[in-house]
Amino acid sequence: MPVMLEKTYRAFIAAHVPEEQAADAAAELAGYEDHFARIEKRLVQMDGRINLLTWMVGFNLAMMVAVLFKVFGR
Fold first, then answer.
1. pLDDT tens, 21-39?
2. CA distance linking residue 53 with residue 32, whole number of Å
3. pLDDT, mean over the chain
4. What secondary structure letter does DSSP report for 67?
5. Angstrom distance (rounded) from CA 38 to CA 29
6. pTM of the entire structure?
7. Which among 4, 54, 55, 72 could disulfide-bond with 26, CB atoms 3.0 to 4.6 Å apart, if both were Cys?
8. Is the pLDDT at 42 greater than 70, yes or no?
């Protein structure tokens, strides 16, 4: 039997849903937990990339200002 949410399965049974349908529905809902974990992992990776890009743009801006001061400064 696939992994399923036991409390959800019991709730379906208590609502007089046929046992096979209750098991299928509970197993399908259990699959969403893995889906959300994968989305969270991708969001953490994107956050790291955005942080890196922020530092790169800041460094680029600082170097550009330094070059402009060197060129147009006295």
1. 888 888 888 777 778 888 9
2. 31
3. 87
4. H
5. 15
6. 0.53
7. 4
8. yes
